[in-house]
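To whoever is on call:

I kicked off a structure prediction for a single chain this morning and the downstream step that reads the tokens threw a length-mismatch warning. I double-checked the sequence; it's 312 residues and nothing unusual in it as far as I can see. Pasting both halves so you can look.
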Amino acid sequence: MGHNDDDKYIVGTYLERRESPEVECQLQEQLHLILRRLMETKGLYQNERVDDSIFVKYQTSKSLKSEFSKRPIDLYSRIASDGTSRDTQRNVKRGYNGIQLYADGMILSSYVPNINILCTVCKSSSSFICVHSINHVPDLNIYPKSGNETEQLYSLMYQCPVCRDSVVTYQILRKGLKFQITGRSSPYRPIIENVWPKHIVKIIEDARIAVAEGDISAGYYHLRTALEFYLKSEIKIAYKTKVDGVELCEKYNSKQDHRLKDGFPSPLPIYAKLSEGMHSREVSAEEFELLQKQFHDHLFAKKLFSEYRTHV
């Protein structure tokens, strides 16, 4: 991992030991993944944790996990407020001394990642850039609250690189190895891919927002509703018409390209899994993502096959 002179304060947070700087670099990569997931895909008060597997390979894994739960972590933008260099705010650290004789008191610094979100001004989906970061409350020695699970509060300001008129600010709370999104200046809105038919886009959006806010059961309900609306529109049935789900899927399948019936996601098993989750409330975000992907892939395959029709 290469560093230039501009990164000296980042390199300076590594300890001189056999595990370093590898373990610090892996944690910094984890922080990037966590922050992206929180800001790109999560609603308020949703959590992400550092994956403990980054410590497992080391004989000192238990002590490393304890160390990084305690160590202060500072997050920085690569862009300064004047748009020319890194944020000079990094030089202001209140509430603790950056020079410590023990590992769990030493600051670990990390840059924050760009995030891919929808701009509400120019409507483009682009990589927003962090233009300002705050690791403390100005003039108050509140954070970090040192302990076995050190607590910190971060404020990260992102700007649209296309129009530069849209700025979104996030507040992230850290407790040990857990990070929670506790504030955002605009509500979470998912990016909806073009493959989704316009008449169900709002329902797909509602499904994703529900899951992003932790209401997984509602996500299942909205996704099944989107599937029902799509199937009914394809076989020319009014949305209000009551039809058994199995019958609805079979009527739809009977009218589809024969190539869709072998080896590609089919509506019936997707519908069945969504119904099962709705009635049992045994749901998970992982299964929701899988079912949504299968629905998406079915639509994508159908669109592709329509462009390459056969006469068989």
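Update from on-call: the warning came from a stale cache, not from the record. Cleared it. Sanity check on the structure: The chain has nine helices and eight strands.
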